[in-house]
Design brief:
This is YtxH domain-containing protein. By secondary structure, this protein is mostly helical. It is built from six helices and no strands.
Length: about 180
């Protein structure tokens, strides 16, 4: 029995040695996989940093371009700025409010003229709405006056509204 025990002991020792070798091989493979993953993660992080830096540079450049465009658009020395305000003033009552805000920062005579004209046309339409028979056509009359006014504004001419435009300029001088 002792030979048998010895053979079993040798087999157990061989099995244990094989298990140790396999465990060492698995450990080496795991270490290699970890190192490979670590290297890939580092490459990915470097690539992400580079892309983020490129994006930040492009965003900064776009912001600078936008800032320059805004300065050009709202430059008080450019005559088109008053035209922009004048046209926006004709686009509903909210457009008129936006035009007042825009004109308050860079006041132009052209923009102020059409802010006064447009306010006068809106009030004129409301007053006409209360007049019997004529009230039915108040919206149409107002639309025609707005169209005539916006065409004049787009052409860069300060043309008062037919018949009452000079009154609007006197009544609303403070705008």
């Amino acid at each position: 029995m002792s030979d048998e025990n010895k053979d079993l002991g040798d087999e157990a020792k061989d099995a244990l040695d094989n298990a140790k070798k396999k465990a060492e091989n698995l450990g080496d493979k795991a270490e290699d996989a970890f190192d490979n993953a670590k290297e890939k993660a580092g490459d990915f992080a470097d690539d992400a940093k580079e892309k983020a830096s490129d994006f930040a540079d492009k965003a900064e450049e776009a912001a600078k371009d936008f800032k320059e465009e805004v300065k050009d658009t709202f430059d008080p020395n450019k005559p088109d700025n008053g035209k922009t305000v004048a046209i926006i003033a004709h686009i509903t009552f909210i457009g008129w409010i936006v035009a007042i805000v825009m004109n308050s920062s860079n006041k132009t005579e052209f923009g102020s003229f059409y802010i006064r004209q447009t306010l006068g046309i809106w009030i004129f339409m409301m007053v006409l709405g209360f007049v019997p028979i004529v009230g039915c056509f108040a919206g149409l009359i107002g639309l025609v006056l707005i169209v005539i006014s916006i065409i004049a504004a787009a052409n860069g001419k300060m043309t008062p509204t037919v018949g009452v435009g000079h009154l609007f300029q006197d009544w609303f001088k403070s705008l």
